[in-house]
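pinned: reference chain
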Amino acid sequence: MRDQLRAAHLALTFLTTLPLPHIKEVRDGDFARASAYYPLAGYAVGGAVALLLWLPVPLPTGVIAALGVGAWLLLTGMLHFDGLVDSADALFAMKTPAERLVILRDVHVGAFGLATGGLYLLLLWSLLSAPIPPLAPLVAAVAARTLLLIPMNTYPAARAESLGARSREGRVWAALLIAAPTLLIPGAWAACLAALVGALLAAAFSARRLGGGLNGDTYGLIVVTAELTALTAFAWGR
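pinned: its structure tokens
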């Protein structure tokens, strides 16, 4: 039980900026065990944004959506956004897979990353401005972090020494069980299916461009892609 609580704690401190005490020493296998609790981070991030959309705040819809985008970025520490931007610079470069892996380590942001990051923010703001159900961000955030485990445990790690490699071999079924309550929310099944398609397509594209493997930055790309496709499913036809 203590190991499981430790794993849940590590998942929340790794994937969110919640004011929790950090684990001083990370042992072998801790990150793999923590991956089973990634949905908890989705509940925290998506739940906060959902609450913001639900509250009767006397502000224009666009302003509330902008605050939602800010909350989303703040609560994740821009972890997945950073992965998206870095991945865009590498994956869209006309280079070899080995050279793209080098680009992923570059701290500078290029044109592809800048454009992709801007497009992501615009899409997220537009979707949060749409007449989606208030709980849509909760479903999207939980689904994205849960479904990440499928490509994470399907594709090899692009670099064996990376943090992403240490997070593999997670408990997919345990994560699905934790995320299951969100399926009771109207529209969640379609949104989760859309998130699954988005995650798998992003993973396949990333692996093909990197020579067959994935890394932590591409995990961020997969998460934000799954979130956007889930939110799009909620907004479809409204």
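why pinned: The first helix runs from residue 2 to 15. The CA atoms of residues 91 and 209 lie 6 Å apart.
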